[in-house]
Structure of Replication protein A subunit:
Amino acid sequence: MISRGTLKPAQKAFNHLRNDHEIMLDSTSTVQPCFEDDKSIPQQQFHFRPISDIEGMENNSVVDVIGVVSSISPSSSIMRKNGTETQKRTLQLKDMSGRSVELTLWGNFCNAEGQTLQNMCDSGIFPVLAVKSGRVNDFNGKSVGTISTSQLFIEPDFPEAQKLKTWFENDGKSTPAISISRETSMVRTDVRKTISQIKDEKLGTSEKPDWITVSATLTFVKVDNFCYTACPIMIGDRQCNKKVTNNGDGKWRCDRCDQSVDECDYRYILQMQIQDHTGLTWVTAFQESGEDIMGISAKDLYYLKYEEQDDEKFAELVRSILFTKFLFKLKVKEETFSDEQRVKSTVVKAEKVNLQTETRYLLDLIAKFKEEDSGVLPPKIENIISTSGLSTGGFGTGSRESVPPAMNYSGTSSNVTRDSGVPASQTNSYSNQYGGSRFPSAGSSGMYMSCSSCGGTGHNSANCPSLMNGPGQSYGGGFGNKAIPGSGVGGASGECFKCHQSGHWARDCPGTSNVPPAYGSSNVTPGRYGMTPKQHVGGF
């Protein structure tokens, strides 16, 4: 309940509300809390404007805006013109107008709502954010910043928020947005890099720092000077944190504040070495990130080492974090040390690797690589005959270039098949055991044998159509050729040894069928010694 106020026309230059009047309070005015809920008082009202409309607004205009947080940067400290330090955090808002804008959070908004938004974005959630009374800035395009009267609502239960969320899940996530903040100072730390890429890609050497995420193992920590003495004096809403020196009288002096205090604070300045599969590098972790890594405040660790002098417990605590895998969010920037340019990596945030999240990331990465490789066709291979399962002088599977068939007259392994007509499955034990034929034996599962005479398939040289009834070629010969290659039993020429004509065997030679029996043969038709006529041995 407000009473004894003065009602006057609103000064629009200083009042961004839509009301035509304002109430001025003086020393006689009273303000009394009302604990009973009066439903006649309207709830918070919003006048949301599309992000595309902000582009045409004047500088310092106050606006209500709602959008999806598509990206967010870590909180950072900046120095004001009056010498005070404050926190700053930037994020990107996009909406259905096809535009995006940079929103800057100042002061306590960074560590309260800002940290909540950071955690949600790191978890893969893109929250809806409603901003009440943000101020438009026209520096570097148009951007929106918080002021003391601003209010932030994360995932509000508004009709506008539900509509925006549905749009983002269906189309907005993949729809590109044009930023109205021309040269945004937005930084991203979700770009995954390896340690070797810091040097190979010359990160940090441009005007602005590079913000990256590295999955690495902590391998070394410098335990000397792991913290510094800091000023505890509050300047505005922030602690000074500048280094203080001991006066020698038990008090600590801050040159920046020009004051002395009875007790100082302790803040981390950890020098560490991290390593991944590509290399290693030095990084520096300050207060918040140092606590994330060590799991204990710098002040408690200092007292453990120097006041309690419990070296064993101190060493055990340090050993417990070594060889632990973290996701380090790094700020990489080239700085000057003693007139020498060096690239410095500062840990903005460190969190232990979540195996479930990391596995999902790696699976998505593998799927992405498969998509990129799916369009690549294997090289075209011509005139290749697979020799899987065949023994051709090597081990395992392989392939060879096909060669034109050649006639082998030397009685080597090729002739075992050509001359004896043994099926390919039975010649395997001989084909590579003798001679130097260029044709591997067949007979393994799923393989075919090409004819060494004509190069065709579906038959071997024993029943090759091009050799059937051809002069000078064998027809399948004597039994010796089937048992032992090159045994010499049975003809290899295919000619009758009596008349030297082809087309018949010697026993059927027409030139000897009417010859009278030899002396002492007992009327036995000439043939093998001691054998009766027409008695065939070994296929004769």
